[in-house]
Design goal:
The chain is of the alpha+beta class and 505 residues long. It has three domains: 287 residues, no CATH class; 111 residues, no CATH class; 52 residues, no CATH class. The chain contains 13 helices and 22 strands. Helix 4 crosses helix 6, helix 7 runs antiparallel to helix 8 and helix 11 packs across helix 12. The longest helix is centred in the last third of the chain and has 31 residues.
Length: 505
């Protein structure tokens, strides 16, 4: 049995998955930096064909990596309504190394077009009538594109999905298939299958091999325990497929031109190095035949042509290098690549040794700013879904109760705005009563509303304690000032009344 036959038995047609695999293969090859039909080629050196391998700048990898770092890094904050719930959630995320998992997941999803974050509950034991969740723990994993099998989707949004993974035990390969499908009540049920063999041919594992394996798990929730990650790019290959488009899908030609320019630079330094021409008398003989060079693999030393400068035993040739032209060509292609993947112009610069990335603050009117915000919209929805799944799984099957009715994602926009300058301006607005202390604390202390109110209360208490230590309070001062001002106003009013009385007389 193979994957297509298995899903057909379950009533699902996975032809869409199979048709899309050719694009997955192409984008994966570029992500790895080695496309066999492009980077491998042959040349004739005058004696035989020699296999060559074109140098790669790993442009696709760099692009995907940069997008992941821009969208999700250690500065991104996930907050719930209360401080207690936020701390409980962050503890689960730390246990799962979520920052790394999500960051690398975004990188691979942007490279290949699609990825998925999946929640599961580990260490559950199956009892006679119920599940034992005493030692249960919530686990977060990333599943790459080739292991994702969409089952049901609407408007390109996947609502039911299967995840195919492999594990190795005692020299045997096992295939695990987890199908996240809805039951009649609209709740998600996870149906698990275990086989041994390869994707192309496998058989069901025996009972001994499946010991501790739970065949079916009812989540008792309409919240999906998976979230699909894709770049927010309109699919111009197939508008009906649920799979996403690689962030460099429309820049393959540019990646080819970039690697051609980089390989040309490498060849220029190789071919353009000094050539040594020596007299035939200095060359070795093999079975009576004079070689053209000392070593067939040596491209530096050559036999001097007959009749050429007979009086000289050794001559050399110094070719002028065109490295500056090739570096210019590399930078030209980098600029095109930067624009095609949504970074705008001049994101990258090649200095002859490595790619340098621009780190300055970008304008809100730039292409990069607009693209970042566009990707954040889709990513935010996926992250909220997975956070709700983690909170629910922890509450129902774990040992920690988490309320995730309100989830906010605070992305790191430091590349978009000068954080320091923005904070100074915000402080001035607070001083001029143009902004509340609470909103300032929320934004620049990375606190939610409840936490900000607690912080303000603490600040006020400390302020009052300090005032009492010096023998005065603001309230008393205000009260005294108010009394003084009131007495002055009363005197003015009495004086005016007396003047009016005199006028009437």
């Amino acid at each position: 049995m193979n994957l297509q036959q298995f899903f057909s038995k379950q009533g699902y047609d996975i032809s869409e998955k199979l048709n899309w695999e050719k694009y997955i293969t192409i984008w994966t090859s570029w992500y790895r930096g080695k496309v066999r039909k492009f980077h491998n080629y042959y040349i004739y050196n005058g004696q035989r064909k020699v296999k060559m391998e074109k140098k790669s700048m790993q442009g696709a990898k760099k692009v995907a990596e940069d997008w992941a770092d821009l969208l999700f890094n250690e500065k991104v904050k996930i907050n719930l309504k209360s401080k207690k719930d936020t701390e409980a959630l962050n503890e689960i995320l730390r246990e799962n190394n979520a920052t790394v998992i999500i960051n690398q997941g975004i990188e691979k999803s942007f490279a290949i077009g699609t990825g998925a974050l999946v929640v599961s509950v580990q260490d559950i034991e199956e009892g006679e009538n119920t599940l034992d969740v005493t030692n249960a723990r919530v686990k977060l994993e990333f599943v790459e594109c080739k292991k994702i099998v969409p089952l049901t989707w609407e408007n390109r949004k996947i609502t039911e999905c299967a995840f195919v993974t492999t594990k190795y035990r005692k020299g045997q390969t096992y295939i695990y298939i987890a199908m996240h499908v809805k039951n009649e009540q609209g709740n998600y049920v996870i149906k698990n299958y275990m086989f041994k063999g390869k994707y192309s041919s496998f058989v069901e594992a025996n009972e001994e091999e499946k010991e501790g394996f739970i065949d079916e798990f009812d989540t008792k929730s309409n919240i999906p325990w998976f979230a699909i990650i894709t770049p927010n790019i309109c699919n111009n290959i197939d508008s009906e497929t649920p799979f996403g488009l690689s962030v460099y899908a429309n820049a393959i030609d540019t990646l080819k031109c970039l690697d051609n320019a980089y390989d040309g630079l490498d060849n220029e330094t190789t071919i353009g190095r000094r050539r040594i021409f020596v007299s035939g008398e200095m060359l070795s003989y093999d079975e009576g035949e004079q070689r053209m060079v000392f070593d067939p693999n040596d491209i530096s030393v050559y036999r001097m042509p007959q009749g050429f400068n007979k009086d000289q035993m050794i001559e050399h040739d110094d070719a002028s290098l065109r490295t500056s032209s090739y570096i210019e060509a590399v930078n030209y292609q980098l600029n095109i690549l930067s624009s095609k993947v949504g970074f705008g112009n001049e994101r990258y610069k090649f200095d002859g040794q490595a790619i340098q990335t621009a780190t300055g603050v970008i304008s809100e009117n730039s292409d990069m700013f607009r693209t970042i915000k566009k990707h954040e919209q889709v990513l935010e929805s996926s992250l909220i879904t997975i956070v709700k799944a983690i909170a629910y799984a922890s509450t129902v099957f774990g040992n920690v109760t988490i309320n995730a009715s309100v989830v906010t994602i605070d992305f790191d926009d430091s590349i978009i705005e000068d954080r320091g300058a923005e904070q100074v301006r915000a402080m001035q607005e607070v001083a001029q009563n143009l902004r509340s202390h609470k909103s300032y604390i929320e934004e620049y202390r990375d606190l939610n509303e409840e936490q900000a109110l607690e912080e303000m209360e603490q600040i006020q208490q400390e302020k009052m304690s300090n005032q009492e230590a010096f023998g005065f309070t603001v309230n008393n001062d205000i009260k005294e000032n108010d009394n003084d001002e009131g007495n002055k106003n009363k005197e003015k009013e009495e004086k005016k009344n007396n003047e009016d009385d005199k006028k009437e007389e």
